[in-house]
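From the pipeline queue, job 12 of 40. The input is one protein chain; the requested action is below.

Action: predict structure.
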Amino acid sequence: MDFNSLDSTSLDSLQTYEVIDSNPYHIKKVYTQANNTINSQDFQTNIESTKTTQSQPIDYIIFLDSDDYLDHACIQSCIESNINNQAQIIFYEDAYIFDGIEKQTLYTWQETCGFKKATFITPSIWLDKTIQTKADYFGVTRGVVIDFNFLQTIKLKFLNGIYHEDILFGVILFMQAKNILILPNKYYYYRLRAGSICNYGSIAVKIPFYLEKILPYFNGSTKLVSQYNLASSWALIALHTLEFLQNFADKELAQSFEKAFMPFYAKQFLLLFECRADPLNLRPKFPLLLPYLENTPLSFYERILAFHPLLRPIAVKIHHFYLWQKDLERRFRWWRKGRKVKCKLGKAAK
């Protein structure tokens, strides 16, 4: 944060801490520590001295990935724009940083929806705008400042151990707000790089430690574990979203979301049937989502997976064989192309 951009009142209200030679897990206790400099050798002493210290109240919460950074004006601008604290969520834009990968043309939700100035909207308007973007899903964790009391009231937490956790979190968060403040300002600098969890560069990435326990189900193959992690994550997102919608008070809003997005969620569940194993035993819960696929366009293969459980094993084997054959053909074309290039180079050398 650029402290020169803050006024004296803001500076007085800030609490800053310097952590030297350590990144302690007990950061909440460090936060309440009166001594602003925490040396690793004094860490345990400092922890003991904070047991009776009262934590500072939290007004807002913001998420920042270690790869990314915020514009220096982000927090103060967001808070000042939320006139009379009308909004429980302040939603601003990403600025994209392409780190070692090819640049792409990406548009933020605000740009796609045509927001040009700060605007207060309701969850109903948010959903209508999101549907108009024709996106398959909506997710958010970065790019938002959230009223902490609101977050505690709705008792929303991230679902551990899944991929795309921002989809489940973002939908449940936005649907329960009274007002959302949309800011068409690029305050969050989001880094896209190879080797990240999202793996924009498509290079081999080690699986997270929490997936190591299911490696035996897949003969130690990290590739198959990653495939299952993606499939099971979508299955869990679909099931938890369905449970939320069934208990949500605003039935009209819930039905609008169901109609627009649940068919895609249900379709993603089908990925689970292609996995070698199902350690979480999620497949038996698929019938809960089957109604969403009855009027959804599906390929012949997807329709077999969805509506013909007895034929699933055969269909999956045939499909895998087809993919293996396509991959073999692709590799052969690459080999043949490389061989022709070598021949041309050899002739040129002569």
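Job complete. Confidence is low (pLDDT under 50) at residues 1-11, 199-204.
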